[in-house]
């Protein structure tokens, strides 16, 4: 597979995480707890970090939330968790950073939306105030423009210019230009105020896949800032996953993007970590990074009317992901391993031979035996009622032999 060389941007250091400048694409996520609830927010940050989120954004929307930020950082540090936390500011960020210097210091990055930093005459001084705080505390800033909260002054200006054209462009095209221009003008203003390019990340989010691709292609061609990718609202379930994969894969294949977030709508009561897993799987299937051993499994057909191989594939995949927090340091390189769990003899032996380790289960009506292949060679044939347990033990032994330092 051919992957475009990633565009070298200015590298931004966020806590202990490098973004841009040739660094691997970074996965981030966001809490949905009330930030003022310190324990709940700390617990969710730890949960997201354990799943693989390398940075976590939190809402800072009130005095109570701002007062909690330093406590959240302290608790994380006490628990040995160094995950960078990002403050998400809208409307009143300038006031909160001024009143709560501990919050300004504890955050590893500020997120500012030019459309929500102030209106009319208050916009420029309030934006300036936030950038000055970033300079004072030596913090990077993501200038994040959203289609749903676009700076109306920029859009109005471009619409006025568009009306004077002999052939005016459609509103959607003008809006896309306004989104990009808002980000670029805000970044230029931040630089004028003393914030270096190595402290600036840009994002221009919208929910439409094709428009998002056009916007980032335009933005990338016009600047060398580090870029954060993601749909504003991806949606729920398979729709959100497919939309995110479609948009981000196209852009990353073109070398666009330095950090990503998958903004899934979680199902009621479900874990917030799904968006982290989806982000990792997009990067891993595209060949950009490896996070956890990949399980290759067949879809099933009339030869596999039993759900045995499906359950085994699910169990092995869950087992591998659950073990990764320990394996990540104990078995370096294990994240690149491929495990094949196949349902019958048609493609089973071939796919199993191509994986690091694989099993070809008996399909419906076939002999109840399951050959296991390690690095292309058949090593054992499993039979009986304990095929699943025995295969998991074989996987564990393979990892210990091949990935132990």
UniProtKB/TrEMBL annotation:
Gene3D superfamilies: Dihydropteroate synthase-like, Sulfite Reductase Hemoprotein, domain 1. Pathway: Isoprenoid biosynthesis; isopentenyl diphosphate biosynthesis via DXP pathway; isopentenyl diphosphate from 1-deoxy-D-xylulose 5-phosphate: step 5/6. It comes from the Bacteria. Its cofactor is [4Fe-4S] cluster. [4Fe-4S] cluster binds at residues 298, 301, 344, 351. The keyword Iron applies. Binds 1 [4Fe-4S] cluster. GO terms for molecular function: 4-hydroxy-3-methylbut-2-en-1-yl diphosphate synthase activity (ferredoxin). Residues 295-396 form the IspG C-terminal domain. Its EC number is 1.17.7.3. It catalyses: (2E)-4-hydroxy-3-methylbut-2-enyl diphosphate + oxidized [flavodoxin] + H2O + 2 H(+) = 2-C-methyl-D-erythritol 2,4-cyclic diphosphate + reduced [flavodoxin]. Keywords: 4Fe-4S, Iron, Iron-sulfur, Isoprene biosynthesis, Metal-binding, Oxidoreductase. It is an enzyme of class 1 (oxidoreductase). Residues 9-279 form the IspG TIM-barrel domain. Belongs to the IspG family. Converts 2C-methyl-D-erythritol 2,4-cyclodiphosphate (ME-2,4cPP) into 1-hydroxy-2-methyl-2-(E)-butenyl 4-diphosphate. This is 4-hydroxy-3-methylbut-2-en-1-yl diphosphate synthase (flavodoxin).
